[in-house]
Design brief:
- This protein is mainly beta and 609 residues long.
- It has one domain.
- The protein contains three helices and 18 strands.
- It has a 16-stranded antiparallel β-barrel with strand order 2-3-4-6-7-8-9-10-11-12-13-14-15-16-17-18. A two-stranded antiparallel ribbon has the order 1-5.
Amino acid sequence: MKTHKYLFAVLLLLWSGAEKLYAQYWGEMVLEKSFEQENFFFTPTELKPYGLSTYSAVAPGLFSDQILNLSLNPACVWQDSEKSVYVYADFRSIHNLQSDKYGIRPLYGYDMVRYDANYFFPAFYSEPREETLPFFAGALMLRPIQIWGRKPVFGVTYRMIFQDEDYYAIPFDIYRSSIGMDYAGNQMMDESVMPVVDRYRGEDRMNQTGHFLSFFSGVEIMPWLTLGFRINRTTFDRDGKVGSHNLWNDNSESSVWEDWEWRSQNYDHWDYSSGMSINLNKDIRLGIKAGYLKGDVSQVLGTEDSSYYSFGQINQNDNWGLYDRSASSSKSWVHDGRTYYGGLDFHLRISPSLTSVFYFLRENTDKDITLKANIADTSFSSYRSTWEQNTWESVYAYSLTDSRSGSGTYTRDRNVFAAMFQWQMDGNKSLNFGAQIETQDARTKTLENVIANRFFYNAYSNTNPDYPDAENMNKVSESKELDWDFRARRTDIRIPVVFNWRVSPAVELIFGINRTMSRWTIDDVTLAKFDYRVTTTDTSTVRKENFGERYSEPTEKRTHIQTAMIAGITFRPTEKLSVRLLTVPRFENRYGGSELSHLEWWLSFNVTK
């Protein structure tokens, strides 16, 4: 009897998962820390050839490419007036994000492990997951008509995310449920009295779909002036669920329990930009662009945990047990934001073989944040056990409620300065190199109103006089405001060097390196302002009113260095078609030296006519 119950307990722990072994509740943690970010939220997104790994940030200006030039300025449209059709398509690999190898508790914005240009600092997922990247991208540019002697360019770009993977949890949640545990992580039911489950229904999935569609056009108004504009529509949906339903019963024992967690997220934005390009003379070109982005994102996270178990005849047998639990939570986030951005680009032909590109980009983002959550968790456990004429009896009960709502703001300033050089060393060899400095300063401030109640009761009795009876009760009721102030400042320095060698008219090789050095400073302060807190312990009650508690994380100053290599080959079987294969191994400096973090590949096709 005890053997099969013990095996069931082991299976239960394995099924629950490492992150669900203990129920957890942090009353002074704020909701916004559990919002899941993506690098394309509230920021302009462009299709970038050569945009693998850290090269996505430095590719514009470093490489001479028709699509990349649009990232700098919508007026940098197709310059080759002899051709009327340009087609581009690429496919790329998807890799896993870094898991938490060192047990570091995730920081706010844990997704920033990707070290993307739009993230402020790194942290870690508690379990591996796939990075959210487009698996396909394409572009089309046409000159279909002629107007007043000019041939305007019309174009479209499209990228798509379509990923299915196992469900991954948000690690910085204020509450997480677990079967057999109360909100404080205390065990509610003895493992030896849990039955074997032989009926099971489970689910473990995460689906993510994104669409990035842009339309653009440009026309040469005069020989020295080109105008362009761009409209982008981005949508992204994420939903997933994990959990199981278990049922078992016979004449003497019965058990039914369910544990589910689900999450959904919906994001969309409209992005409008325009630009002009002015040819000051045959060697100097100046560009100006400006844009406005408006978007919103909503996220919902819910849990449901129901458990029931009994064996024996309650209050009639020498051995019986009863366990009853019900827990649920719902949390929601809404971000409504806008981004204003602009830039200057300066193209200078220093000599017939050397061209330089200097540019400055600035973004300013502000968001309004709305937060809401409700948590309810109750459990009751009672049992009687008789062994060698001794009888043990126990009653255990607890409850937790947390109801909160709030609002806040988010602001971010981002600046990028770059100097890139394209040097044609001889007829078949070229060297591209440069430097880029990026600074970001982001601040999040939220205020949450919280009403919370916690109750705990435990009674124990034993017929053996060597084990005295015991009874404990604890109750806490409180009303408070959580005032959270979070600031992250980051500086990145990137130095890319890329060598191109055209070994024949049909084959070109590419080798390069991009060194990225990042430094960030993080300030995280939560001030809990209590209207009241009433604490009852057994027969003693203490009431406190109008007081505050400050939770200040130490100011963190960190640095990070990573190196991304690039190697590839381009085939040109005809003048109209080119096929390029790129690979990027990325190394990161960690304890004990550099490690290969991941390897990416990229296959692209270009057709011109």
